Amino acid sequence: MTPILSVRGLTKAYHGTPVLAGVDLDVSEHEVVVLIGASGSGKSTLLRCIDLLEEIDDGQILLDGRDISDPRIDADGARRAMGMVFQSFNLFPHLTALGNVALAPRVVHGTARRAAQDRGRELLARVGLADLADAYPDKLSGGQQQRVAIARALAYEPRLLLLDEITSALDPELVGEVLTLVGELAAGGATIVMATHEMAFARDVADTVCFLDGGRIVEAGTAAQVLTDPVEDRTRQFLRRFTAGR
Ligand SMILES: Nc1ncnc2c1ncn2[C@@H]1O[C@H](COP(=O)(O)OP(=O)(O)OP(=O)(O)O)[C@@H](O)[C@H]1O
Ligand SMILES: [Mg+2]
């Protein structure tokens, strides 16, 4: 079966400094891949390259077998097949939760206002926020705002969700509700690539854990293998430092 996502030999440098140094990654349908690694190891850059927010220097990114890193393709169209969520929620403050979710389909797709609103309500219900459709972001908790951002990322029924440290800006007591939602999406069959420092979540939900170091995937395997019985010294060191720092 063709993987949904296939990253091959991806390299990327900023001002001559390599940040991704040959990344290969295959993601199958319904697979949950968690990226772990120290700050600066390249997790965000990898996710941004996959979402075509960065130009890559070399390699290929195939989505459903199609080379979306080919400059001749319609990048916006390809990006619509992916939903990306960032650490900062980036909601429009002057729009309600519903407005934020309904905006993308309405403006970009030209969906009729009524249909976009119905669709927006459906998406908000999916993230457990049906009752807060008319609330403005400043009246929502961080966890609720992030769930709105996730609903917005689901707007086009993406083939792939790219989640970059989506709980790192949240107060600790709000992390759970967002991770629970991601777990539900995963259980519902979503295909997810997610950078996170939430190791317990990775252990419980990830099919595959990739440890990045210096812009490479140094080790990849099942969550149980990589998190509890890593092969590589560098992975072991990272996990040791990580647990010590908690
Ligand atoms: N726009 C940019 N211009 C220059 N350098 C950048 C840029 N974005 C990232 N970098 C550099 O690329 C490297 C990888 O950064 P990246 O943000 O991908 O790491 P990360 O693994 O996501 O780290 P963190 O855990 O802190 O989020 C870092 O050295 C960073 O300084
Ligand atoms: Mg990052």
UniProtKB/TrEMBL annotation:
Membrane topology, as annotated: Peripheral membrane protein
GO MF: ABC-type amino acid transporter activity; ATP binding; ATP hydrolysis activity
Protein name: ABC transporter ATP-binding protein
Major localization class: membrane
SMART domains cross-referenced by the UniProt entry: AAA
Keywords, in A-Z order: Amino-acid transport, ATP-binding, Cell membrane, Membrane, Nucleotide-binding, Transport
Positions of the ABC transporter domain: 5-239
One CC-aspect GO term: plasma membrane
UniProt organism field: Mycolicibacterium sediminis
Keyword ATP-binding among UniProt keywords: yes
Family, similarity comment: Belongs to the ABC transporter superfamily.
ATP-binding in keyword set: yes
Family matches, as Pfam families: ABC_tran (PF00005)
Localization annotation: Cell membrane
Coiled coil: none
